[in-house]
Amino acid sequence: MSIPLSEFTRRRKQLMRMMDKHAIAIIPSAPVRVRNRDAEYPYRQDSDFLYLTGFSEPEAVAVLVPGREHGEYVLFCRERDPVMETWHGRRAGQDGAIEQYGADDSFPISDIDEILPGLMEDRDTVYYTMGRDTDFDQKLMGWINRLREQVRAGAHPPHEFISLEYLLHDMRLYKSRSEIKAMKEAARIAVAAHKRAMRACRPGMTEYQIEAELLYEFRRNGAEPAYQSIVGGGANGCILHYTENRDELKDGDLLLIDAGAEHLGYASDITRTFPVNGRFSDAQRELYEVVLEAQAAAIEKTVPGNHWNDPHMAAVKVLTRGLVELGLLKGKPAQLIKEGEYRRFYMHRTGHWLGLDVHDVGDYKLDEEWRLLEPGMVTTVEPGLYIPAGSKGVPKRYHDIGIRIEDDVLVTKDGHDVLTEAAPKHPDEIEALMGEAAAA
Ligand code: GLY
Ligand code: MN
Ligand code: MN
Prior knowledge:
By secondary structure, the chain is α+β, with helices and mostly antiparallel strands. It has 13 helices and 21 strands. It has 2 domains: 5-171, 3-Layer(aba) Sandwich (Creatine Amidinohydrolase, Chain A, domain 1), CATH 3.40.350.10; 174-439, Creatine Amidinohydrolase. It has a 6-stranded mixed beta sheet, sandwiched between helices. A 3-stranded antiparallel beta sheet has the order 9-12-13. It has a 3-stranded antiparallel beta sheet with strand order 10-11-14. The longest helix is centred in the middle third of the chain and has 24 residues, at 177-200.
């Protein structure tokens, strides 16, 4: 399963159609990052670059030159090199760039200083994402300045710079059929990982042992974590971005796992919260059911024609009402919402776009208004409640309970499709799964 080559061609053509005439787009690959001396972080291609090329090697630059006689899509990449390939791995080379990746023309990356300024000459406008890779920003300025120096010799350097993201990120917001397929697979793998974690969990295990179960499920499916998995027991569940994952899991505590898989570059992003010992306490279940109801209300609002903010407001309403009913907040829900009182226990928003990036690109507002949801958009729906010990005025039985429930929701023509719904989230379902695993 992969994204077909024809789709990358279609994306590049669509982008070129939207660009000004006499323009050029320049998209560099992600830089390699050092972890310690000679050891690098696992390489992850830049999402914009990947979206337009499907090419996952570092040291590459994609250039789109609409109307160029010798081909509109030029890919600079590393040359084939038997010695380097023996040490560091295979390379597509220039022939591979053309034959396997559909480039019209390809040059060695080592020749870019000589060739790219020539491609920019006679172009009025450069589309480029400034400020993401400062080394590349400087190179680009160097090429432009070289052209400027040659003005008296007849050079015509570009004089307009436009942020590439503006066009590209709107394209990325609407997922195609093959992207949705890839996201469904990323979801399927993450669902399996969460179920595996629920089955494996026992009091006395550690958070990293549960993380290992997640990683095992990701890797045996050819996927990797889309982001650092959060595995937080008890009080750690109240730390939104807890990733140390090193404490022991205690009988009577909840465990919050926020973990997603990346497949073909596409992310899933799931959170489930369940009791370490397989049985919710009354206090845990009371809060859990509020979050679950808030999530259901938010998912219900995730349909075409609604505003981006509608699911969030639906979740906030249910959470606030629940907090009042359980005695954690005092007052009238409407007033508490107006004053933002719920933020004591719910301090993040209910979702974000999801795609090649976990927090995917795309504007949330257009002309200062919340954007309308449209078919093909994918968002997370992830309300939560976080009640750390010492929360003033909160009965002790609720202390150190952190709960989040997160699913990935595709907006469809008729409503929505919850891509991650196969991960159990109803308390009875969770208890049944964990009970079976304990008995086995
Ligand atoms: N896993 C990051 C998030 O839920 O936004
Ligand atoms: Mn999320
Ligand atoms: Mn998440």
